[in-house]
Design brief:
Radius of gyration: 32 Å
CATH architecture of the largest domain: 3-Layer(aba) Sandwich
Largest sheet: 3 strands, antiparallel
CATH superfamily of the largest domain: Periplasmic binding protein-like II
Number of strands: 14
Strand content: 5-15%
Shape: globular
Helix content: 40-55%
Strand order of the largest sheet: 3-13-6
Number of domains: 2
CATH topology of the largest domain: D-Maltodextrin-Binding Protein, domain 2
Length: 447
């Protein structure tokens, strides 16, 4: 009995000791776990602290596939560069100017912003100088397009980096060309006039160049004609008004005559009217980006095999066209100047840039000479005509810089309306004097 009692007491003591040891083990484990958790938290904190976040504010592209590729390439950049996180902020085209202005004026915002046309000149003293980057890119891929240099090179320094431009130019029907008895599409403005006469004579769908208040197409037509004949708003200094010239008279007289053979409704057209008229077969020649062709592939596929595109018409002073240029800007307030340059250089490297161009199906083109012959131009021979477009694009204010005054002249359609006034009966000289007066008002206001 006594032996059994001793045995039970011993077993209880053993169980008690076992429990006590387990508790000690638990406390030890808990302490180690706490240290481990603290160490993990500290490690995560250090990692978060080490990660540098850069924001690129860009537009929501009219070609969604282009944005998808941009996102994919950005993820690849982030994966390749530990401790760096590039974030994309997509905004609407209409919201972009105000958001860029707000960020730069407040000194806080995205590390990279997007400029159109010559907007970088508005913020010259608030932008990081990018001479080394632009020079490296041009050494690797050839010269920058003249319009890009005009937009981004100021007072001896590069203040923004060209990304791409949206090509536009003559869009025409090849089958109508043959019906008119022509083997080759008109190469010069004077050839176009002869062709327009033949189309009207044979009652074929006419030439139709938009001349209403269309910010894209009308300005493109008016400026291209003016510049190709040697006319200009201002001299190279961007200040001396030069619109009243013999060359401007020749351009205006030419457009007045060409209009006689065009669809008369072009004076009221916006940027969509010529697209619809071309797709409906009502006209056979217009100027546009590749968007008419892309819509035709979807909605009127039988038309695509009859369409083609080419470079701008040549005039007495050469071949000129207005350029829709897009550029990267790095505000000086950014704390990630080095990363911003690294990321932009990555996007413009052929390994990234060529695939990005390809998915745009002609909506975007390079602004460095090497990309004039990018393989995507050969994927569809019917957009190949736009591939040399960058050689001939200039910005409002040419041959001077794209100043604030030039932007206002463009937005108020002064050059367009000069042509239209003459077409509607105002004597050529009087129409030019009107334009000169309006241009002088704008320059005097900002003096």
């Amino acid at each position: 009995m006594r032996l059994e009692l001793k045995r039970r007491i011993a077993m209880r003591s053993k169980r008690f000791d076992s429990t006590r040891l387990t508790r000690r083990a638990f406390l030890g484990t808990a302490a180690n776990t706490a240290i481990g958790v603290w160490g993990l938290s500290a490690g995560l904190a250090r990692k978060a602290e080490a990660t540098r976040v850069l924001t690129f504010q860009t537009w929501s592209d009219y070609t969604p596939a282009s944005d998808r590729v941009l996102k994919k390439q950005t993820r690849r950049f982030n994966k390749k560069h530990k401790g760096i996180e590039v974030e994309l902020e997509f905004i609407s085209l209409n919201d972009r100017p105000a958001k860029v202005a707000a960020a730069i004026e407040s000194g806080a915002g995205p590390d990279i912003v997007l400029f159109w046309y010559g907007e970088a000149r508005l913020y010259e003293y608030s932008l990081h100088t990018v001479d080394d980057l632009c020079n490296r890119l041009s050494q690797k891929y050839g010269d920058w397009a003249p319009a890009i240099k005009s937009a981004n090179f100021m007072n001896g320094h590069w203040k923004a980096i060209g990304w791409n431009h949206i090509p536009q130019g003559p869009t025409y029907r090849e089958d109508i060309l043959k019906q008119a008895g022509w083997e080759k599409f008109p190469d010069t403005w004077h050839d176009l006039l002869r062709y327009a006469k033949d189309l009207k004579k044979k009652k074929l769908p006419p030439v139709a160049l938009t001349l209403g208040h269309a910010i894209g197409d009308a300005n493109a037509n008016a400026y291209a004609c003016l510049w190709s004949f040697g006319g200009k708003e201002v001299e190279e200094d961007g200040k001396t008004i030069a619109i009243n010239s013999k060359e401007t008279e020749e351009a205006v007289e030419f457009m007045r005559e060409l209009y006689e053979y065009m669809d008369p409704s072009v004076l009221a057209w916006d940027d969509s009217n010529n697209n619809r008229a071309f797709l409906a077969g009502a006209i056979s020649v217009t100027t546009n980006a590749v968007s008419i062709y892309n819509v035709a592939k979807r909605d009127v596929p039988e038309l695509t095999s009859k369409m083609n595109h080419t470079i701008p018409w040549k005039g007495p002073a050469g071949r000129r066209s207005i350029g829709i240029t897009l550029s990267f800007g790095i505000p000086s307030y950014s704390k990630n100047l080095d990363i911003a340059e690294q990321y932009i250089e990555y996007l413009l490297d052929r390994e990234q840039f060529s695939p990005w161009l390809a998915v745009g199906t002609g909506m975007h083109a390079g602004v460095l000479r090497a990309y004039d012959d990018d393989p995507f131009w050969d994927a569809d021979p019917r957009i190949r005509g736009f591939k040399d477009n960058a050689k001939y694009i200039y910005l409002p204010g040419y041959p001077g810089p794209p100043t604030r005054e030039a932007a206002e002249i463009q937005s108020k359609f002064i050059i367009v309306d000069m042509f239209v006034k003459a077409i509607q009966g105002t004597p050529t000289k009087k129409a030019i004097l009107w334009a000169e007066s309006e241009i002088m008002k704008i320059h005097k206001k900002s003096a």
